[in-house]
Amino acid sequence: MTTTPDKNAVLNELQQFVQPAALMASPAETEADPAVPVQWLRFLDEQEHGRRLALLTEWSDFAAEWTSVQDFLRTMLKHLYVMREQDDTLSLLYLYTVGGKDLNFFRGRAPITDVPERLRPVWDWVPAKFRDFYTQLHDGWTFLPANSMGPLPVEDWAFLSDDKFDIDDDTARRLPIDISRTVAVFHNGAGDYLCLNCVGNGEATGVIWWHEDPENPEPVDFWGVLDAWVGIFLEEADRHGA
């Protein structure tokens, strides 16, 4: 286990982006809070004893599809914290460093307990393993300052037909996809989105919507792109060994 970062330094860094009401790094700090997921308590308990078996086990269900995160958990992750914000939103923060000192975070919210009404018409098309991630582990897992470079929280999933994408009716008719059933689930931080095209009889297929070429969405391997984009983003993260 690597050296624990100074908690005050962590709080100072976080306050640039969010306003934590509490930042907890041990079961003793969180056990009185019934809203904290039990699995997070296990993660923190093992962390106190220099282990991460429970964390790796929970993530192992997605290891085959998402190898970049397995690498992150084993060789880049410095410390875990449970953060409660002023509005009582709970997140599990995954701290890592860049350049030896710059503190960075991925943020995983508590698993969802209900699918938002607007997503129910397409939810069954979402790949089963991706649904499991949201219902069993985290409601999204993103780079904290930008809410990007990972699967977005379901509240931030957006259909390409939404106003934010500014696709007019004429363009929509020419596209090879139905924008009302194509949902953006991953933002790369540069204006591009990895989407799920929720049509047909099987699982949704991957599509990249490029902001500089909006009329030519690119069919892609969904998990392959998700894994690659996260891996590229983490290339500069400090490693501490397997």
Automatic annotation (TrEMBL):
Q: What's the domain of life for this entry?
A: Bacteria
Q: What is this protein called?
A: SMI1/KNR4 family protein
Q: Which organism is it from?
A: Massilia orientalis
Q: Could you read off the lineage of the organism from its UniProt record? A: Bacteria, Pseudomonadati, Pseudomonadota, Betaproteobacteria, Burkholderiales
